[in-house]
């Protein structure tokens, strides 16, 4: 890394307290020009205030971009083709957003001639790794500035004090003690920190933003049908949707039925355990539906191999290796398996649960003629005897030898 001060820095900017302080700190500490980039990934917030705040702080080049379709089409959907779950339960809502934001930062840096990029992730978390692995994968010699690893602002109160001393506009609740750290995009909302740092403490119901409490969800089940083509969901109840619109609609349906809440203690890549609460209503439905259509259309060997690869794939995404060659290699295998993953899944949403109640496909491998308990003309049950004996041979030899 060069010792010279950067001349122009592209900052991943949300408009909140942390990144607003970072913006001013970059200007003061490095005397550099700051370019801000704010991504709309479906977080449900008005982003124009971020533009206005950046302008107020003297930023001349301000990028606010709607990346929702790209996010779902090129990042969420490929991940869901793999049925990716980190540590068996987490649908990777935060993890999958970071490589897209970082990729676009690098593209903007190239376009405006910036020699550095910056982010607001702390030195304790996973996001610093995810951002920076992407930066270096796409632009090996880029300079990366991570203020939380450099400055002496170590608490929320010191951030507020710095903001007040440097005329940085503070969000209305910044002087209060916000109980949670919240991250949101079209796939999920996550909550960490403060009251949740004790894994024994139950989260307050008022915290949740996307989902009804299951016990308060409707007493009547919601029945939906999700259509798939080549492993991607393309329709709900027969109506075609774009990727982002489809996930938005599944979020609405799932949230109204209390679907998609998760309380997780996870293993961070940097070595510590952390407790997080997640709301992923649409993603939970999509995950269940995709596995159901695969159960009809994937060959047993292909399905089982996919299941073996999935934990490694999920770990790569969680740890920030979206642009690593091994993730791309697994993705190629996953995508090849999806050619015949086509059809419709019928699901019941009821008080926090998602149940498969039907599935059909023009590419189905399910053969009623073979599986029926009634008389058939295609399967000779006597063939099973030789099959079993051959598979038992090694077991019989071992048993004869004794233990």
Question: How is this structure best described in words?
Answer:
The protein is 40% helix and 19% strand. With 403 residues, the protein is α/β, with parallel strands linked by helices. The protein has 2 domains: 8-78 and 94-177, HUPs (Rossmann fold), CATH 3.40.50; 182-298 and 340-360, Argininosuccinate synthetase, chain A, domain 2 (Alpha-Beta Complex), CATH 3.90.1260.10. α7 crosses α8. It is elongated. The N and C termini lie far apart (62 Å).
User: Approximately what portion of the residues adopt beta-strand conformation?
Assistant: 15-25%
Work out the oligomeric state of the chains in this entry.
single chain
Estimate percent helicity: 25-40%
State the CATH superfamily name of the largest domain. Answer: HUPs
Structural domains: how many:
2
Rg over CA atoms, rounded to whole Å, is: 25 Å
Sheet/helix structural class: alpha/beta
State the major sheet: 5 strands, parallel
Q: How far apart lie the N and C ends?
A: 62 Å
**What is the correct CATH architecture of the largest domain?**
3-Layer(aba) Sandwich
Q: Major sheet: order of its strands?
A: 3-2-1-4-5
Let me know the number of strands: 14
**Given the C-alpha coordinates, what overall shape results?**
elongated
CATH topology of the largest domain: Rossmann fold
Average pLDDT number: 93
Total helices: the number is 12
List keywords for this structure.
single chain, 403 residues, 2 domains, five-stranded parallel β-sheet, five-stranded antiparallel β-sheet, 12 helices, 40% helix
């Amino acid at each position: 890394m060069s010792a010279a001060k950067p001349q122009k820095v592209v900052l991943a900017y949300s408009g909140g307290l942390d990144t607003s302080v970072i913006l001013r700190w970059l200007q003061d500490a490095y005397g550099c020009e700051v370019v801000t980039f704010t991504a709309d990934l479906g977080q449900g917030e008005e982003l124009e205030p971020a533009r206005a705040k950046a302008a107020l702080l003297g930023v001349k080049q301000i990028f606010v971009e709607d990346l929702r379709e790209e996010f779902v089409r090129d990042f969420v959907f490929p991940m869901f083709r793999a049925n990716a779950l980190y540590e068996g339960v987490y649908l990777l809502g935060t993890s999958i957003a970071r490589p897209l934001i970082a990729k676009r930062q690098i593209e903007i840096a190239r376009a405006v001639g910036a020699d550095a990029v910056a982010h607001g992730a702390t030195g304790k978390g996973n996001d610093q790794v995810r951002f920076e692995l992407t930066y270096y994968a796409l632009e090996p010699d880029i300079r990366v500035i991570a203020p939380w690893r450099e400055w002496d602002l170590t608490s929320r109160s010191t951030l507020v004090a710095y903001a007040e001393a440097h005329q940085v506009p503070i969000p209305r609740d910044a002087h209060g003690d916000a109980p949670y750290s919240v991250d949101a995009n079209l796939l999920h909302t996550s909550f960490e920190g403060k009251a949740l740092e004790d894994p024994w403490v139950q989260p307050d119901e008022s915290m949740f933003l996307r989902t009804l409490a299951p016990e308060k969800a409707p007493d009547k089940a919601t029945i939906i049908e999700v259509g798939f083509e080549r492993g991607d969901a393309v329709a709900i109840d027969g109506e075609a949707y774009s990727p982002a619109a489809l996930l938005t609609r599944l979020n609405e349906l799932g949230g109204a039925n209390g679907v998609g809440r998760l309380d997780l203690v996870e293993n961070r890549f940097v070595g510590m355990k952390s407790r997080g609460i997640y709301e992923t209503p649409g993603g939970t439905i999509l995950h269940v539906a995709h596995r159901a259509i695969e159960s009809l259309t994937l060959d047993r060997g292909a399905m089982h191999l996919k299941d073996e690869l999935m934990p490694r794939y999920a770990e790569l995404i969680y740890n920030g290796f979206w642009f690593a060659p091994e993730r791309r290699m697994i993705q190629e295998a996953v995508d090849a398996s999806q050619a015949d993953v086509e059809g419709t899944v019928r699901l019941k949403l009821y008080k926090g649960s998602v149940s498969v109640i039907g599935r059909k496909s023009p590419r189905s491998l399910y053969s009623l003629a073979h599986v029926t308990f009634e008389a058939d003309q295609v399967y000779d049950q006597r063939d099973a005897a030789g099959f079993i004996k051959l598979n038992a041979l090694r077991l019989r030899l071992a048993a004869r030898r004794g233990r």
